[in-house]
What we know:
Two copies of one chain form a homodimer. Chain A is α+β, with helices and mostly antiparallel strands and 437 residues long.
Amino acid sequence: MAKMTPISGFPEWLPEQKLAEDRVVRTLAAVYASHGFVPIETPAVELIETLSSKGVVDREIYSIKRYHAEGEEEAALGLHFDLTVPFARYVAQHMAKLSFPFKRYQMQKVWRGERPQKGRFREFYQFDIDTIARDELPLSCDAEVLHVFLKAFKLMALGPFRMSVNSRKVLHGCYSSLGLAEAQRKAAIIAVDKLHKVGKDGVMKELGSAAGVAPDVAARILDLTAVQCAPRDFVRITGSLGISDPLFDAGVGELRDIFALIPEAFHDFILVDLSLARGLDYYTGIIFETQMTDFPEFGSVASGGRYENLASQFTSQKLPGVGGSIGLSRLMELAFTNGLLSTEQRTFAKVLVSVLSEEQRPRCNEVAEELRAEGIPVEVYFKSPKLGKQIDFAASKGIPYILFVSEDGAGIEVKDLQSKEQRLVSDLKAWGRSLLA
Amino acid sequence: MAKMTPISGFPEWLPEQKLAEDRVVRTLAAVYASHGFVPIETPAVELIETLSSKGVVDREIYSIKRYHAEGEEEAALGLHFDLTVPFARYVAQHMAKLSFPFKRYQMQKVWRGERPQKGRFREFYQFDIDTIARDELPLSCDAEVLHVFLKAFKLMALGPFRMSVNSRKVLHGCYSSLGLAEAQRKAAIIAVDKLHKVGKDGVMKELGSAAGVAPDVAARILDLTAVQCAPRDFVRITGSLGISDPLFDAGVGELRDIFALIPEAFHDFILVDLSLARGLDYYTGIIFETQMTDFPEFGSVASGGRYENLASQFTSQKLPGVGGSIGLSRLMELAFTNGLLSTEQRTFAKVLVSVLSEEQRPRCNEVAEELRAEGIPVEVYFKSPKLGKQIDFAASKGIPYILFVSEDGAGIEVKDLQSKEQRLVSDLKAWGRSLLA
């Protein structure tokens, strides 16, 4: 017998979990589609050259190789490690055939060639959205992306969540007002991003060593990370920080304008958090992360931001964008582990047509087809054993109704497996439609 | 600039093609779900040991390797080349948590590590269904799989199609009645499977060389491949072949019973075809292939059959099954190349809310949200340029309606971009609901 050891880092769900994940995916896709985002998909495989930005393979990439390659030469290929790089390549490659602003959603697996370790996925789904424009992208797009993410988390209904929001311009402005040059500011952002991992002392140390910041300035930078407030208090509170800097003012103004375009009802889910820095260097405006607040130690499950140029490595066309990514598989893992998502549903079938003898199967199939034509998923029992077995089957699958067809095929009775009531069905199609209501 | 050369064999669709593919996928999933099939998904990655049946890597497998592996030892991993092997591993591994008969659908990419060559995909979607039982699987399941496939092709509405059906038992029975031993019969099946590729002479030759069949018997085998008939004529025509063999009789009886369980309306799409043999050695009963009849040279786009034991390499539990696979990406390629599938839809949005000044954007967003609450996908224009630009945008995306919000925010007018008519909307929600009808 071959081994069946699960491979660490490659998650696999049971059917009822996959059904639950599919419901979440449909919810997300519907939200994105309702705002005019369109789906795209790219191959899992890209040239290693594409995946390696500026020639350096700086992420844990899986390369792929034909097992029976017999030494032929072919361009080196690898599995994508995120959806941003393939999306950039896609937009640059198909630019003439896309209409801008290009708003896309994309749900695909990504692979990370990491050392196997507990809790780390090496294959997982990301669900991304981005809005890209040529040359210039107004703040209405930032607001829409945030609005859509907030809606998505509300509709997934996995429990309380909070979106932390900040702006790279606000951070650069703060640090600039403290006298940091651009390279120092970038190093300071990388240091501050590690606050939750290495603590205040760790950040202090890195601000000194990597950003070359004096201890009193570093302390001031750390003070700023404590600033957290609701969107409604944000202009007042940032105004009281005593920072005078044009970049800072621009960042504050942008956030204010973005919040003004997000319906008030969603403001309670937003926290302006000046400790939020994000590690990736390409963000230039708003940045955000999303936490399930009952599970703070789990970290962010969705994040993103605004960037100046999506695809500078592929095209000279400037393509500013704003977008974000939900770590879908991680979120599902959290949901399954903590019962945040019902996995009660084990089948789409709402009705089991019992089969009392093989002679009546054709008639049972007809009955099932009549209900399916009304939009009711129906299972017909695959054998014709004693009724008890068929009722057990329906119960074990969570199918709520079981139908009995009379020997002459004319009469149909239905049993409600919850109430145990049994009654004649005079109008099958009407009864079927009543299940949809 | 990095290269953007498409990698041969890794197809990628434009957004409007992806929208069309998604519609096909929803159609297929809905058909399968309506019969009680449930979705599963397995990782793209399996142990090479799992992928290599009986220790031999006999398919073109892509192995994967961490780019920065630094010489650590880990089990060899590869990308799955079909969904059958992962499904077998899945069922064996999770057997205790599944309920049987287990009916699953599974749409995933598979990878074939082939030499790059024109027209061959190296990454593509397959959409599989299978019904698996413990120990014994009745013919009702074969009939359901065929019925579901026939429905699926009808509902995809890609043009005329035909399902060719045969039975391994019928073939073994025929060859047995001609005096062939089991090993010879298996070799004969492999030879006959190549008929459309190598022609009659080629099959004749292989029947002699590989199956050790005398020329007169080989000629008789070739004669049998000419037998084609409708399901309604099948018992009569096979009865007139003068074959007396218990396996043959059993196969004929099974096909007859299966056809009896498929609604008459679908029989016109079925052709019993004794030249159909299928190359894979695990089939034991019914076998089928499906062609788009306007494109015979394209070959089969969906195929499958009955097998005795799904997962003998993983478990001693006998798991007979019946199922099949649609080569989704190949089918989409055919559909796109030949215009079988509309790619008119370029967005889900049914309405564009125009924005005449940034001051009115919040009100425009409110209007959009009211419509979205009624289930209407709505796009709000991202900037506020002259109206002509916004109308052009709606037209280029195929959005049928454009809304204008009055300066005071109270009045809303709608323009139908097809009829060019413009009128006041007095009840926005009611108007929205009218779009759904």
